Amino acid sequence: MNYQNILTNTQDGIARITINRPSKLNALNIDTIAELHDAFKVANMDRNTKVIVLVGRGEKAFVAGADISEFANFSEEKGQQLAEKGQKLLFDFVDNLSTPVIAAINGFALGGGLELAMACHIRIASDNAKMGLPEVSLGVIPGYGGTQRLPQLVGKGRALEMIMTAGMIDAETAKNYGLVNHVVAQEALIPLAEKIANKIMRNSSVAIAKAIKAVNSGFEAGKNGYKTEVKQFGKSFGTSDFKEGTTAFLEKRTAQFLGE
Ligand code: COA
Asked: In which element (H, E) is residue 108 found?
């Protein structure tokens, strides 16, 4: 697929996906969502990619939301389809990816931008970042998972305050809320993402994929996270990474995982 709205680059096990519409503060239109889906799919299938880092182009925005100009005259039915398709193609897709995804929030992460960051497995932010779900100020509600993932991350009361006031919180507040794990100066953001990625990469990628599945299972309606954990724990014993990890420990050497 030829990308018009994103940039991709893979180096040393890290696939960097950059949303590239800086003149629109990287707002997510339907084409960008399709391109992101493709880029995440490609990176997830690439055996050499161990971690994906998602960032917005420029110094101002990660993503300033879904592209308002695109849905401003949608009907009820088209609105529902927009949310349904977007959740499936991008937000749930990223959340359930077996490759770890780090959102490097380099500026505004609003509406669909914050929802996208929340679908990633880890969030870090630059100190100029501003986050919020301003949808009710437009007469709509978050439609890309924000009403579900925000309360999971920050608690119901804080989430409802953010949603109902349509306000923005700064990076430090986001860290205090548990919405982002770390806050650094903008120039230190990608180096920090790479540092975390490198720590992740030392470990078994098959075990990490199972851990993501087990953690996510606890948040899925009708699923029992503990049961998923037991199953995935058992399955780990059948992998060559398990054999290598335990053998390396007993032989007092560093494990060389093949991700199998
Ligand atoms: N959808 C479409 N276009 C958007 C956008 C969005 N969500 N967010 C920003 N843009 C566009 C602006 O329309 C403007 O385009 P233009 O130069 O062609 O007019 C450009 O990006 C720059 O934005 P601008 O508003 O001029 O920047 P600012 O620094 O004055 O304000 C924000 C920054 C983030 C506060 C402001 O852009 C904003 O409120 N954006 C919408 C946020 C939102 O409600 N998101 C949720 C959508 S559901």
From this structure: strand 108-110
